[in-house]
């Protein structure tokens, strides 16, 4: 019998407002020998995502809250290092939702083997070729019903979902894509690398005024990662029949007080607007369609991406907090 | 040559906040002889509707603003008293959008002949069998996608649209229908006459608390005529995948300051909610389907209604203002 040690990050207490280190603890978990059907996986990359903040609260949602005292679950990718399951052999690359740990051991059915494609870095399965890309695709297509010729506004455009969404919008025929981000460097990247037609720094001034200037003919679709003043600005800028896919609201994730909603809700009626929120769990049936499209675009060299990588599982909480503060460009990842 | 005098109500100035008599003027319009293709119509009933308040403002909307100095347009029904158009003979009953006048004269194509059905009062074509009923039907079906077994909440439930919507919801298979209104008498009417399963007086206290009590298992569909605290309460009460048809927001039609939106917009994402606004103009293709259903329900004695009738075209502005204040039960009409 061999014991195997795993370092894992657990939720120690529920944050009120901004999370702090004291809300987490680093635990050493001892695994025994593999039981039949189990595999042991050494993670290569672990994902930190904005939606995880919501799961730290004990509120009703499509996605259940994290349990106190348990390891933070979420996307990760790694290699099988020991196997007692024929279908998932040693050396296989596997995606899973076991979350913030350097190593994990569980039934083979909780891991999904992904092919090792030359020229496709592993980490991309955690963002542009994975859930993040799917989130962008679902929001634009199934939720907002984007059509060729639409003008599309994307908030938090330099983040993992935003960089994917801008490119997908253009590839699906958007006439004009506008993005907001939080630094001049990010704004430059949006137009220079990601094909945005216009971009602005929301810290430079009133979002309504900046969006109105960037979209003189109004917007048809809004993909929202931010909420707050961004949603209000979009409701002002919408053309008749405009559609918003509400994906995230990072502006209010760490507030402790209730924040008032947009002051222009009347436009929803007079302009026949639709605001639809979504979480990915209800749209996983679109994953095959997305994979087919995205794989083709990627192979054709049409998909750019950025990664902000933090090394060491013990720095996962810092990576998460930095991501919440907008320190990342593109996808924030922990390399184990 | 004969001259014919018509009394008409025109928009004299745009109201800021609550409209007042000074914003309107009573004009006497002189019509000459009929030209070929024209008809002259003596109105029987003229409609006053909440959406008209929005048209008094000079703001962008699906429905164009009323022009200053022109007669307020809107639904009316009357009899042809003189005709120079073979297809619309004297005595025909016609529906039209010429609005607030005792008599009107125009091309026959601007009037729609409706059959004189025994047992169907003319006035019903202006509400439960007309645009008002269609509004309720479109909101529940095409906008909110109501399904059998849904729990439905309707704000402003004792008004013209609300009384129709509650009955249509039940006839389409809603499991439970909940309504809000502004007096104990209206609340009693909702459950005793209109088949609502529960109702509350929004003036009795916090709308959130009253809705939560009336809908212990949450709501699936919200048909909103009020906005403000009603919309906020619905967003709190929604089950996952809930859908709101935003039809009116009478709570804020007469405010001069911007009013903050719901403080719980985050629920839209976490519960996968959809808020969709609409105005009827985009959904007139559903009129035949509605007419077929509604006519059958009405003939079977399944549709109740109320009318609050004001006599005299010169009292139209009072009728409109009273309706905005909630003085009506069911449909507010002016009998000419």
TrEMBL record, chains A, B:
Residues in coiled coil: none
Pfam families registered for this protein in UniProt: ADH_N_2 (PF16884), ADH_zinc_N (PF00107)
Keywords carried by this UniProt record: Oxidoreductase
Residue ranges occupied by any Enoyl reductase (ER) domain in the UniProt entry: 20-334
Keyword check for Oxidoreductase: yes
Gene3D superfamilies with a match to the protein in the record: Medium-chain alcohol dehydrogenases, catalytic domain (3.90.180.10), NAD(P)-binding Rossmann-like Domain (3.40.50.720)
Protein name: NADPH-dependent curcumin reductase CurA
Organism: Promicromonospora iranensis
């Amino acid at each position: 019998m061999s014991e195997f040690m795993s370092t894992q990050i657990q939720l120690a207490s529920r944050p009120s407002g901004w999370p702090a280190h004291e809300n987490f603890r680093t635990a050493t978990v001892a695994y025994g020998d593999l039981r039949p059907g189990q595999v042991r996986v050494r993670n290569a990359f672990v994902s930190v995502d904005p939606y995880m903040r919501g799961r730290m609260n004990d509120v009703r949602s499509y996605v259940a809250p994290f349990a106190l005292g348990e390891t933070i679950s979420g996307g990760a990718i790694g290699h099988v290092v020991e196997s007692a399951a024929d279908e998932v052999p040693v050396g296989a690359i596997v995606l899973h939702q076991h979350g913030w740990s350097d190593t994990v051991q569980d039934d083979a059915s909780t891991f999904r083997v992904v092919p090792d494609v030359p020229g496709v870095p592993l980490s991309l399965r955690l963002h542009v070729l994975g859930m993040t890309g799917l989130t962008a695709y679902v929001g634009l297509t199934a939720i907002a019903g984007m059509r060729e010729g639409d003008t599309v506004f994307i908030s938090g455009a330099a983040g993992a979902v935003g960089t994917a969404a801008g490119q997908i919008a253009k590839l699906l025929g958007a006439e004009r894509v506008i993005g907001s981000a939080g630094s001049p460097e990010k704004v430059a990247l949006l137009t220079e690398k990601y094909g945005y037609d216009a971009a602005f720094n929301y810290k430079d001034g009133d979002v309504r005024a900046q969006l109105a200037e960037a979209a003189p003919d109004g917007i048809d679709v809004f993909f929202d990662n931010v909420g707050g003043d961004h949603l209000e600005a979009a409701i002002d800028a919408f053309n008749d029949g405009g559609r918003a896919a509400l994906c995230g609201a990072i502006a209010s994730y760490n507030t402790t007080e209730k924040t008032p909603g947009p002051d222009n809700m009347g436009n929803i009626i007079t302009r026949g607007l639709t605001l639809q929120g979504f979480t990915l769990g209800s749209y996983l049936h679109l994953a095959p369609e997305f994979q087919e499209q995205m794989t083709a675009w990627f192979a054709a060299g049409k998909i750019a991406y950025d990664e902000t990588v933090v090394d060491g599982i013990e720095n996962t909480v810092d990576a998460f907090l930095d991501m919440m503060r907008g320190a990342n460009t593109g996808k924030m990842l922990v390399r184990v």
